[in-house]
Amino acid sequence: MSMFDDIPVDVGVIYEGERIRWPDTYVELGGPKVEYKFELVKVRSPDEVEDGKTVIIGPDIKDLKKGSYPFGIYIEVAGRDLDEELEGVIERRIHEYCNYIEGFMHLNQRYDIWIRISKRSVEKGLNSLKYVGKVLQRLFKSELPIIEKMQVTFITDPEKVKEKFKEAMETYEKRDAKARGLKDEDVEAFYGCVLCQSFAPTHVCVITPQRYSNCGAISWFDGRAAARIDPKGPVFRINKGECIDPIRGEYTGVNEIVKMKSGGEIKRVWLYSAFGYPHTSCGCFEAVAFYIPEVEGFGIVHRGFAEKTPNGLPFSTLADSTAGGRQVDGFHGISIEYMRSEKFLQAEGGWKSIVWMPEAVKEKVKDFIPKEMIDKIPTEKDVSNIEELKKFLEARNHPVVAKWKVEVEKPPVKEAVTAPTETAAQPPVTVTAMPVGASAPSGGFKIILKNAKIHARRVIIRRRE
Ligand code: SF4
Question: Is the pLDDT of residue 188 over 90?
Answer without folding.
Answer: yes
